[in-house]
């Protein structure tokens, strides 16, 4: 279980939010809402361990999650609002660098990930040929490469068409059914069944 | 952890191979800059032989700066830096791998290219080996210093302009002892002290630079 305990965020000398607490249990999804600049991205980056906390704590199964960055990073997958797609590499090469293992199992995992985001037909073309929505799908495909328990999603469906959003919804449902957790910052309605929402203000 | 590090090095190398023109640009810049010296100073063989170590070193130093701008810049702009930091790799190791890839695709080609350029500038045969040795040691130190500079300017608006201002002053000791090694061979003095000092710089840089660069990259991602 992930517990956010009374954390605060400061940008410059401006207090974004303070005393924010919530928990995410296995199989649970939380949508972060709030106006532009409310600190949704900052909160996600804090949970990921990229941005230091101004105060408070992030607890994983009761222990300080950020004390051991390597272990914390191994259990989370972060989808930022940039896609981290290298235009010079092919679609499948873009995924190859984020997954290890022996060649056969790695290739199988990449194929499965591409299938989930419906990019299998484009696996061997350079990523610079992809449209914005397709690049987004490729970034989403990175989520399925690792068995990360916690998905941190920053505006995950920006640029996606309705069919892709529905497919992404199914991915999230499957992830949750396997006991995964999701925290997503969003303005749009996410295809998440029975999710809670936390409002930043 | 080593598996992730090896995978990251593979990524860096694949990206550099795809952008092979970048390495080529470094080499062409090096040759062009070095060939400006005979044009500017005059083609007298004895004079050229005398300034050859310095000319080669200065040209190599400037050429090695060229790809630094993109070393972290590209990853920062497209969001890859976040993903790299979330791989479970210590930032210092990430920086060390970046420095290694810079050396493999800029430093090492420069060391090789220095041989024909030394011939062009009439460097005495006896000074070639010390010059090459000093370039191997010095270029590794430059890659490490350059990586630190590149990490410090991540996200800066005019990072490409700022970088040489940061790195060049730090690189002066390397330049001084690099040219001293080859110069000593020309005048018949022992080259060993200068090379040993270059080795000492490398030892210091390989420990300190990744730590500084890693911390800077992590701070930039905040």
TrEMBL record, chain A:
Signal peptide: none
Recorded superkingdom: Bacteria
Keyword annotations of the record: ATP-binding, Cytochrome c-type biogenesis, Membrane, Nucleotide-binding, Translocase, Transport
GO terms of molecular function: ATP binding; ATP hydrolysis activity; transmembrane transporter activity
GO biological process: cytochrome complex assembly
Domain ABC transporter, chain residue ranges per copy: 2-200
NCBIfam families named among the record's database cross-references: ccmA (TIGR01189), PRK13538.1 (NF010061)
Protein name per Swiss-Prot or TrEMBL: Heme ABC exporter ATP-binding protein CcmA
Recorded name of the encoding gene: ccmA
Automatic annotation (TrEMBL), chain B:
Entry keyword set: Cell inner membrane, Cell membrane, Cytochrome c-type biogenesis, Membrane, Transmembrane, Transmembrane helix, Transport
A GO-annotated cellular component: plasma membrane
Annotated GO MF terms: heme transmembrane transporter activity
Gene Ontology biological-process annotations: cytochrome c biosynthetic process; cytochrome complex assembly
Pfam families xrefs: CcmB
Keyword match Cell inner membrane: yes
Transmembrane segments: 21-41, 47-68, 103-123, 135-155, 161-182, 194-217
Topological type in the membrane: Multi-pass membrane protein
Main subcellular location of this protein, as a coarse class: membrane
Subcellular location: Cell inner membrane
The keyword Metal-binding is assigned to this record: no
PANTHER family attached to this UniProt entry: CYTOCHROME C BIOGENESIS B-RELATED, HEME EXPORTER PROTEIN B
Function noted in UniProt: Required for the export of heme to the periplasm for the biogenesis of c-type cytochromes.
Similarity remark: Belongs to the CcmB/CycW/HelB family.
Protein's name according to its UniProt entry: Heme exporter protein B
Gene that this polypeptide is encoded by: ccmB
